[in-house]
Each structure stands twice: as C-alpha cells, then as structure tokens.
Amino acid sequence: MAFNRSDSATYLAGQLAKEFARALQTRAAKLGFSAGQFPILLELWNEEGLTQKQLLERVDVEQATMANTLARMERDGLIERRPHPSDRRAQLVFLTIKARNLKDEALSAASEADQALFAGFRRFEKELMLEYMRWAIENARKL
C-alpha cells in the first residue's frame, strides 16, 4: 500500500507551516525583518528587557537558533542588548526605535498573510481550523 501524503496530518502540518512562513516572509522582507524574527518581535513588543533565556522559553526554539537570530536582529538594527543589572553573564534585549516603529505594519503584514491563506474560508471554518490547530499543538506537546 502506497503512502498518501495528503492523508498525513504530519506532512500537511509541515506544508501548512511552510506556506504560512512563506506568506509572512514575502511581506516581512519588504519591512526589513524575516519571518523567523517575527515571534521574537512579538514577545518584545509585549515586554522589552527580556533575557535570551526568557525569549528561548517563550518562543520555543533551539538555543543556537535564538543566538543566531538575535545576532542578525542586532546587526539589522532591530534590537540592542544591554548588560543585566544583577547577572554579569546575562544581557537584556530591547527593541530599537526602528523595530518599535515596525509594529503596526508588521502586525498588518501578518494579518494579510493569514487572510491570504484563509481566502475562501467562511468565518466559522477559519475559527474551527484555528481551534483544531491549537488542539493538535497541545496534543503534540504532550508527546
């Protein structure tokens, strides 16, 4: 019996994640950031002055990925790192004015990406799909 990728939730979830990232990347690149930086920007727009460790816990990526992403964000003028007041080994991450000014356009770009990928869905279908996605993610985290 042949494996049918279109019947595999794992395969489809991976493809869906790629397409969402691609849709956001297209819009984000015009604004000066990458789709991979977006989750970090979201966290920092909500709360600045986080350590790399706190960002790791919130964004749930590998340590090396976080370090590389923060280095690129610093190079691109999106963040600045400042010494932690009580831990000499840690640094606090803050947004630059450039990144703060990106917030509204970036959130609009993410919303546009969502809308493009949910084109043709009725409202309840989109809400149901989002609920199923959250449910599946919760289940996956229990594994």
Automatic annotation (TrEMBL):
Listed GO MF terms: DNA binding; DNA-binding transcription factor activity
SMART domains in UniProt: HTH_MARR (SM00347)
All copies of domain HTH marR-type, residue ranges: 6-138
Keywords linked to the UniProt accession: DNA-binding, Transcription, Transcription regulation
Keyword DNA-binding: yes
Top-level taxonomic group: Bacteria
Gene3D superfamilies listed in its UniProt record: Winged helix-like DNA-binding domain superfamily/Winged helix DNA-binding domain
Protein name in UniProt: MarR family transcriptional regulator
Annotated source species: Rhizobium terricola
